[in-house]
Amino acid sequence: MNIDIIGAGIGGLTTAIALEQKGIKTRIFEQTEQIKPVGAGIILANNAMQVYEKLGLRKVIEENGNPISSMNITKSNLKPLSKIDLAYFEQKHNTKNIAIHRGTLQKILIDKLKLTKINLDHKLTSIVENTNGYSLEFENGERIQSSTVLGADGLNSVVRQNLFPNNSIRNANQICWRGITEYKLSAKFKNELNEAWGKSERFGFVQIAENKVYWYALKTFKKDKDVFSINDLDKYFSNYDSIIKNIIKSTKNEYIHTAEISDLKPTNVWFKENVCLIGDSAHATTPNMGQGACQAIEDAFVLSECIDKYEINKAFTEYQKLRLPKAHQVVKASWLVGKMAHLKNPILIGLRNQMLRLTPTSINRKQNGQIFQLAEI
Description:
Blueprint: E1 2-6, H1 10-21, E2 25-29, E3 41-44, H2 46-54, H3 58-64, E4 66-68, E5 70-75, E6 80-85, H4 87-93, E7 97-101, H5 102-112, E8 117-119, E9 124-130, E10 133-138, E11 143-146, E12 149-151, H6 158-163, E13 169-182, E14 192-197, E15 201-209, E16 212-220, H7 233-236, H8 242-250, E17 256-264, E18 271-272, E19 275-277, H9 280-283, H10 292-309, H11 312-341, H12 346-358, H13 361-372
């Protein structure tokens, strides 16, 4: 069997590795002319690291990242509101949560591929079904024949638009800045992810390597009214803790990436005949739970196991059945968290903070336990 993967992001690369290890030939088609290390970090939660353990990548990822044993939600002054101790899950699954530079992870994944060719400068424009399968047409003029296609081409997936044109992208009306900076955090913060919630905005930071910090900041905007600039970030977060202000100050503008936050309204069908969606193409989520890439990595594991076990249409059916409920749960919960984090009314903010403080550890543990548990195939 030959499988063509559209997109060389984290989900596409992980899928290619998983399939290659099953002895299944794959080709990857990526729209960019070269794979550049995007100036952002990524947190590989326990569920993602369990997959990488199965693929023989856990050790090298741990060596190139920083372990995170606690996830904290705080007030703008870094006073704690909620803490999730990840040590329980580390022991249960024998894997750590790792914060790592996204570019470093991409290189690790590419280096793991042995036989799969990554075809750069191949932006897909259309998929046309024919008697032998599918004709894939690219912007560079090339046309190839394919028997099986996996769409790993993200939120604005061309594969999805060809399969299911009536899907809906939802704008969260939040702008997000992501940056990486040379900054020495105190030992207290070395193995923590901290996310400070304020009024209609929040700021998160985590160490990804020695003296290297990845941070992200989000702010609500009114459509067609608010205009934000990275040059004013220090003003937007002027009432936050001095550590946060110093992190912003230490970051060069060229290392800050700006984007509006959107997700894909949940859709109940991810495949049609021999074409299937994975990752953000199927279930793009807002980044409020740190599970976007992690869910794509889970897709890669489950889909590769199903393809190895069943004929292709049965494999896609089982994959969708196993993954869709959990992926949709993450999308819905993440959307809700994003709205809750950006409350503006002081009374509602007070109630929210009180709720976070009073939520029992057992509830947090149960919720994360469901997310970290891999499907059984």
